[in-house]
Amino acid sequence: MRQRKVPLRKCVACQQMMAKKELIRVVKTPDDEILIDLTGKKSGRGAYLCGKLSCFKLAKKSRALDRALKHSVGDQIYDQLEQDFIRVEDEFLAAKEESDDE
Ligand SMILES: [Zn+2]
User: Fold this and answer.
1) Domain made up of 9-96: CATH architecture
2) Single pTM value for the model
3) Ligand 1 centroid to 32 CA: how many Å?
4) How far is the CA of 27 from the centre of ligand 1 (A)?
5) Which long-range contacts (CB under 8 A, 24 or more apart) does 32-38 make?
6) Which domain of life is it from (predicted)?
7) How far, in Å, is the centroid of ligand 1 from the Cα of 1?
8) For 27-66, how does the pLDDT look when each residue is reduced to its tens digit (9 = 90+)?
9) CB contact at 8 A, 38 and 24
């Protein structure tokens, strides 16, 4: 069986290369809003994080999102994203399991 090529992306926090579906995308929209994009389809500049809260915390500490998105991300926005991250984590993991099933 031939293996399909999996697109890889780098986690901005721990710098690990991972399959795209293992990562959560954070996007800066054209309106300069910073959001978690579970669909991976929103337009704007994206940054990827492992679907792990520990990686989000690392990104917050090192301000990795500021660099990846080339935009200053305020503490408030990091706090908001962290809450969103916790909220979407289960959904993300569930979706991942489903797609592993194909
Ligand atoms: Zn990571």
Assistant:
1) 2-Layer Sandwich (3.30)
2) 0.87
3) 24
4) 16
5) 32/71, 34/65, 34/69, 34/71, 34/73, 34/77, 34/81, 35/81, 35/84, 36/81, 36/84, 36/85, 36/88, 38/88, 38/91, 38/92, 38/95
6) Bacteria
7) 30
8) 999 999 999 999 889 999 999 999 999 999 999 999 999 9
9) yes
pLDDT bracket for residue 5 (50, 70, 90): confident
Domain limits of the chain?
9-96
- pLDDT of 101 over the 70 cut: no
Write the single-letter amino acid at 46. G
**Predicted confidence band of residue 1 (pLDDT cuts 50, 70, 90):** low
